[in-house]
Amino acid sequence: MKLVTYSNSDMPAIGALLEDSICPFTNDSSLPNEMKAFLEGGEVNMNKATDLLEKAENLIPVDSVTLLSPILNPQKILAIGLNYADHVKESGMETPKIPMVFNKQSSSVTGHNGVIHLPRASEALDYEAEMAFVIGKQCRHVSKDEAASVIAGITICNDVSVRDWQLAVPTFTMGKSFDTHCPLGPCLVTMDEIGDPHDLDIKLFLNGEEKQNSNTKELVFDCYDLIEHLSTAFTLMPGDVVPTGTPGGVLGVEVMAGRASWLQEGDEIKIELEKVGTLSNKVVKEPDSTKFIA
User: Fold this and answer.
1) What is the DSSP letter of 71?
2) Which of 53, 80, 153, 289 is spaced 20 to 30 Å from 100 by Cα?
3) DSSP letters along 254-275, please?
């Protein structure tokens, strides 16, 4: 099932994505209308959603709505650095012996076709194509053998990075968490459709030019390793998002070699992940409206 959060009015809603339409979960009043709450309901809610898909009533055309991030406000975004062998090589760093974990703040989340701000504070804006998994069950101290059972599904993440801010201090959080710098989507695909998450092709295109091309089998630490590691320290909650790292081909290496420039206003980034779809976003200058005191 391809789960989506969408808006065709002032109030976000959730449903299941078909080829060119959405089956709204409002067709069943007992289902919650927010993705984290839906995931918390587990198999009961999933079975109700399956029944709705079989009936396929009151479908909404996809082109009549805005697809939002599948998870609007994740409690945690736990991203992983240096987790593809080719990215480790291009960075000139040693392969990590344990996962390199950093936070992206939930305020950085945006969705499919949402804009990415070129910040006033820096020009060193970079992309990172990533597979992300979403936690479906509250859990702690999960073994690698148990880990598959706590994954709700797979989505795409663009781990947008402000490189000078990222590298200015040992912790990456500031340079990884500017508003709009965590596009997620276009949907959350449940594991029955994904199968093995460690054999999915992933590609990134910048203005139509292929920049990244890899497969999730190249992960240094796979999804199950990461769940075992993360849940050793803290409780994972339904809706928590774990971007699993990016393959080789980031702009930072090209910029340092004098072969490329940072992302510019008007650039369009498309990330394709096998069995999930395409996440598209465009770069715009950070607007004046981002300065405010509420």
Assistant:
1) S
2) 153
3) HHHTTS-----TT-EEEEEETT
